Amino acid sequence: xxxxxxxxxxxxxxxxLAGGALLVLDAADRAFPPxxxxxxxxxxxxxxxxxxxxxxxxxxxxxxxxxxxxADVDPQFLRxxxxxxxxxxxxHCGIDIWALGRASLQFVRNGHIxxxxxxxxxxxxxxxxxxxxxxxxxxxxxxxxxxQIERRLSKEEILDLYLTHAPxxxxxxxxxxxxxxxxxxxxxxxxxxxxxxxxxxPQLPERxxxxxNLKAAQEARKRVLDRVAVAEAIGDGExxxxxxxxxxxxxxxxxxxxxxxxxxxxxxxxxxLKHQTTLKKQVQQGLESVARAATTKLGxxxxxxxxxxxxxxxxxxxxxxxxxxxxxxxxxxIDMTRVNRSPGSTLKPFIYGLxxxxxxVSQETIIEDRPADxxxxxxxxxxxxxxxxxxxxxxxxxxxxxxxxxLLDAVGPSRLLVxxxxxxxxxALPPNxxxxxxxxxxxxxxxxxxLVQLYTALANRGQPARLGDGxxxxxxxxxxxxxxxPVAVWNVADILSGVIPPASAPQRGIAYKTGTSYGxxxxxxxxxxxxxxxxxxxxxxxxxxxxxxxxxxxxxxILFEAFAKSGIATTPLPRPPAGAVRIAQSELPISQRxxxxxxSGLLVASGREPAPLIVYPPEGAHIDLGAKAGDLSPLLLKLxxxxxxxxxxxxxxxxxxxxxRRTQQWLPDGGGYSKLTVIDSAGRAASVGVFID
Length: 693
Hints:
The protein is an alpha+beta fold.
């Protein structure tokens, strides 16, 4: 009994001692936790809309350390890594006792290290808490840290840390950075040869760097492939085939796209590690390649900028802020997409759109291009010549200045700027000046981004979109009234799509307009199809003159090349809306055959004030408004002449309100014949009969 009593007391004492030891170890673990917070320092990333890497920024100590998780890496690489580095990784608690015993026995027998016993957990401990000395105490600390890490993290989280922090030579850390630098791709899909190299490099990263010591890299990769466990992980014959694959002899640059948007994202949210943008990587690469090629042709000190946007969603899918971000001679650090510059003739389409909307002109209306004086303002054409009588279509396609100013005088500069506000665009007027006729020829300041935002309305049946800033701003279609009515938008697109492309430019089926600011300071070109708008600006950031710089000769070729290199298929321009038709000049109402204004601003066919005339719809027209489908659309009514206000009647029934505008909308009750009448304030009337289909 005494013996059993002693054994019981001894066992209890042992348990108490063990328990006490565990309590001490647990207290020590809590008092001296592993520095896992250091592992959170990684490179900030700028991503495209699909999560693809556009660019990364180095860590504060200058390392390319891209956060990597198990899901980011080829599963075969993970199998090879575990097979080569730590076969019992998923079974031990941070220390591989069997490997440690084997390594110790080999050291005793041979007097030097034959094999290592370092687990992946121990390597993670060393990576997040590096120590210069390789002492016995440092190794003990590494063992303890490995156990601590295992207590806090899952096996997958430990692998995440290794994949992010493993050294690959120079300032490369982590599998993603190494894969991008040596293979030019993300590590989601790796060949056996690529995976073997990435397994081999972290053991001696500086000695085995392929760009510094190709032979050492080849030998290291071979050692990985020759390991039996690795061969079993990859399958028969794969190792032999992988050994014949050449190793890349140079290091590639990591993705460095969208410099200006990337910098802006980092300034706005410096603590965020992943910045999602609305850009598309393929589009961004295409635009930047065009910008680099154009830079060699532009000459010194010239810069360029481009913005490409989805007119339906408002998303900026590509943006180039300068010809070269790092070129000081071109002030490349300045984002020229956000700088106010004179837009030249690029606002003319909106002037013509308003004139179409108000029924002032049709495409085949004759308008004079001759010297004119607007209360002291005497616009001249770009080439200092005049064309005489031209059609409105020709005037816009040739970008003639006098006709544009005449139409702006008729629609009113203030009304044009009010329309721009519908697109949330407010051009900058000269100090202490009210809107004048000069705005039609570039006498305001506007950014390239805002100009593209205006043009989204032309690509989207009159409804503009908000572009945001490409990063934190929220893009989207703007609610509210359209910038222009669909029929007017179609007329503008029908004209601009007929402008001849620059010489040797690829045919893209786009509508586009060019502009050159006064003094050859800015060259512009803005084009669009049925989905996307692309704007191009070329000039000097210091706003000095560049002789010979023109929108058609300089910016338009870049526009067409950028559309082609964007990788986006052309979307056809929208189909004509109900009521949109190009009427021959001989079939136009007499008041629309020639554009002229009297002193009161009214259209005249002769020298006297005309009676009201319905110019749309024409007499006897058959108009498809969807009556057969049972979902009728409104009919746009336009008139010329007369004296406001106007009263419209449909089939003898007055429409609800008097109107001072020369346009009105009427929603029929159904299909069939209808008679429309307008009466002006002087009691004069005009009528047409139409068929609603």
